[in-house]
Fold this sequence. Notes:
Layout: H1 9-22, E1 26-32, E2 38-45, E3 48-54, H2 60-69, E4 76-82, H3 85-96, E5 100-111, E6 116-127, H4 137-141, H5 146-150, H6 164-178, E7 183-185, H7 186-190, H8 193-198, H9 204-216, E8 223-226, E9 233-236, H10 243-249
Amino acid sequence: MKRPKIASEAALAEVVTTWLRVDGWRTYHEVELPRGGRADIIATRRGLVWIVETKLQAGLEVLDQALDRQRAGAHGVLVAVPSGPAAVRLATIAGRLGVGVIAVEEGTYYDGHLRTAQTGLHAVLKVWPGFARQARVAELTARLRPEYERQAAGTPGATARWTPFKAAVKSVVEALQAAPGHRLLVDQLALDEAVREYKRGFVAAQLRRWLCWAIVDGLVPGCSLVGRGKERVVLLDPAGLTVERRRELQLDEPPRLPAMNPPEALPVAGA
């Protein structure tokens, strides 16, 4: 089979994620893994968890990456590559090692979702992954936030990708947005779940110091510190949340008040 023309790894990953979602999977992209590294795609469906690594070259590099991902805690690990002779050779080796293979092909295929024949790039599962019965999926799925669903897969160098640091900053800002007067004690915010996840292994005092440093260094938009010691407070100035920072942190836009029509002129007495 001829190798299809695919512009980029991101384009290949988009074909794969579309195919998975049509089949009922939820997909999360460029997810940082508990033991280091980043998965191109994590897919979940009815408790089953797959890791999918995408590459434009069907060679030993992607296979080596997939074998490393088998320690990440998923039930199955797959590679997604363009179809062609190299993909066929890869499938033969990968199957023996418990790694699944998805080939992205070009041509006419039946779209079960639309129930019509379509022409173009489409994904085909060539080899099923081995099933890891002792998978540690709880630690893996704890990292799957909605923000990972919204960003593109196959873009490892993108500066806009979601990270645990951004998750911690977003959680702090959201807590302050909801607090009376947009203010909370440092002690409260330092124990936020997303902050503790980002700085896993830190004790409470270390978490407080890190949060204060991040605020003073301007890494938490719109925030400032007031007071000292246990009474130290974080203040949020909503005006400091620019459109760019809101977009970067995937924060909801503040509610806009409906436009008010000018009041009708009241009749003048005696007119």
